Records
---
Amino acid sequence: MDSEVAVVGAGVVGCATALALARRGVSVALAEAGAEPALGASGASSGILHTGFDSVPGELETELILRSAPLRDRLLDALRVPVLRCGARLRPRDGRPDVVGTLAANAQRNGVAIAFRRDGALKVPGEAVTDPAAYTLALAAAARRHGVAVREGFAVDAVERGQAGSVLRSAGGDALTARVVVNCAGLHADTVARLAGDDSFEIYPRKGEFLVFEHPPGERLERILLPAPTGPTKGVLVFPTVDGKVIAGPTAVDQRDKDDRSVRPAAHDEIHPQAVAMWPALEGAEPIASYAGLRPVGRGVNYLIGASRRAPGLVNVAAIGSTGLTASLGIAEHVCELVTELDVTLRSERPLEPGAAPKLRVPWWQRAAERSWRA
């Protein structure tokens, strides 16, 4: 048997899970369909590390966001991942104090520190921004240092279950065996589950488009600007990046094509006016780039995490939408608990071996923009 656990998908959740298991003495193989980690949703997100101040209390997503917070700073420092601890501001456009009050009460229930500004806005000091691709690649590199066998270019084409465990076969003819399979395949988590015999859920892509700007002359954005919530998504944000740019977005466009990462011509007109309303310095500014990410959204389910009832030896970690970057460390801890119920033994946690985050050829947003353009 190649490993005790095979993790499918080297996005931020898969890499965090592989690392957490390996640190507890589990032999792990990490199978990634792409040429390297972070080529999917994880490398084309906002990079914002949310506090969970506005998350629904009591939901699994909220629990895992909050669980991630005390784990994150130590990991970011040890892996030398760039982070901008800038905080956030939320100010309702119509001045309705009830919106801010409701969010403040929600933050209090979640145990997240907030403060009120004199202008009636809500200040969330714990919000931060990172480089999402560097974060994911740093987790993958740390997983390797802890003994994880990373199999890149391994697109799972078949899953066969035997008495001793599962055999994963790739489209290229490679194979690996494991006692337990942890399905972190993002947009393709439903496909991997079906290959293993579980057709209980479906994943579709929600496109989030972003515009990238230089700072306007004489202006500097110092914090994340959050909109007042108006629907199921967080809406358009304006935020600084770790490399000195300003990004506005995302949109939220549901589609069927899991490969279409193109930025629609209409995206500019949907994003820019909302961004200007939040930060007038962007009036008249033209973006230097645009990119799109495809978030894996479940039909009628969110944060579907647990042992499959239909496929023995399979743990699904699916329908992890826009908060996957934020919640990844908490998700990994949760999965560690789940695999013990499938006869995987965890040992005492080994100290995290430090190391530098891999350097990208271009900034993460440009990497994502190039992939959006090619789409």
---
Amino acid sequence: MAKKNNPESCGLGPALDVIGGKWKASLLWWINSQPRRFGELKRLVPEISEKVLIQQLREMEADGIVHREVFHQVPPRVEYSVTKFGASLDHALLPLAEWGMKHAKRIEVAHPR
């Protein structure tokens, strides 16, 4: 019996494991443009709670899409930057972003905020 195609067999499952969640794509977009500090990300994405921001950044670091660098100074400073692996993911998300822009009005009707 032939195996039915599913998201796991086509690569979509692993990709969504890494970028899944409400905030990761937005955070990656901001970090990809330049390294960002935690407080800066909190200001850029004000809807995200501090707890969720910490969680999402930890998951992104564990998945290897962002690098967390601690600068040992007073006061301590932490900066997040995109890795080469993360930049490739950001590049892969561009067609999805274009699709979203093309269909934004239709999506807004179906999902009003």
